[in-house]
Amino acid sequence: MRFDDAYSGKVFIMSQSESDDAKAIIYGMPMDWTVSFRPGSRFGPNRIREASIGLEEYSPYMDKHMEEVAYFDAGDIPLPFGNPQRSLDEIQAFVKKILDQGKYPLGLGGEHLATWPVIQAVHEKYPDMVLIHIDAHADLRVEYEGEELSHSTPVRKACNLIGPENVYSFGIRSGMREEFQYAKESGMFMARYEVAKPLREVLPKLAGRNVYVTIDIDVLDPAFAPGTGTAEAGGISSKELLEAIQLIAESDVNVIGSDLVEVAPVYDPTEQTVIAASKFVREMLLGWVK
After folding, report:
1. pLDDT tens sequence across 97-129
2. Is residue 137 part of an annotated ligand binding site?
């Protein structure tokens, strides 16, 4: 499958015009069908692309220029509005095609449930995978008000698929008592409130492992990223998230894919959230795509 013909709209800055020799494929997951508070994250991917036009093409964090990484922006996956299961099926099939071509998938959300089918596709190719989850919320619910397909459930689903001992969550500061109890008893790793410091301690233990990284923008304090559906006070700074991305890049883990989700632009007229998100995507591309 070629990705070139699927999309002709906005693209992330310096995207190649053809996908054949790309090492990474950027794709959007414009889905917010199951959110529990404020919708709008389906508009996140394109606004991140728009904000990327203001980026410098050189990263002083990675000491790399964007021309050093071959990537192609395939645009948004066309998802059936309001149909969670069919949307998840479409995402899984799309990511499977990326992986089948030996390319690195970098997803833009969209709500966090959209990460679940990506994990399923990645696990099919890398059954020994580890999940690094950076988020304000535990996302360990079995269901939300009777709905098993909810943006509050993807990490619990991942635990059931790859084993809780292969799940590492950072920055968590919100969830039900039962979620924190599950994390404590299941054998998964959960770092509360902080990201960079516990990452620095954990990454050496994951050396040589295949790691998928999912980042929810609401791990940031609302002062840094108000444009998200379920904002949580007490979060980290943009500087700390940049440090975390760099720590992963400098570690000995093998990052096999990643996503950045839950950007909801309508709640941030200043555009600081999409500006920050586009910078994080730049760093993920330059640091994690080998």
Report:
1. 999 999 999 999 999 999 999 999 999 999 999
2. yes
Interatomic CA distance for residues 176 and 101, integer angstroms: 40
216 annotated binding-site participant: yes
Q: Concatenated DSSP letters for 66-129?
A: GGGS-EEEEEE----TT-HHHHHHHHHHHHHHHHHTT-EEEEEES-GGGHHHHHHHHHHH-TT-
Q: What does the buried/exposed string (b/e) look like for 133-155 if buried means 16 or more CB atoms within 10 Å of the residue's CB?
A: bbbbbbbbbeebeeeebbbbbbb
CA pair distance 280, 290, nearest whole angstrom: 17
**What phi and psi values does residue 133 have, to the nearest 5 degrees?**
-120, 115
- How far apart are the two ends of the chain, measured CA to CA in Å? 22
What residue segments make up the domains of the chain, in order of their start?
4-288
218 is in an annotated binding site: yes
Cα 26 to Cα 16: distance, rounded to the nearest angstrom: 11
Q: Output the CATH code of domain 4-288.
A: 3.40.800.10
139 is in an annotated binding site: yes
Label residues 240-260 b or e (16+ Cβ within 10 Å = b): bbbbbbbbbbebebbbbbbbb
* Contact yes or no for 89/149 (Cβ under 8 A): no
pLDDT in tens, 70-83: 999 999 999 999 99
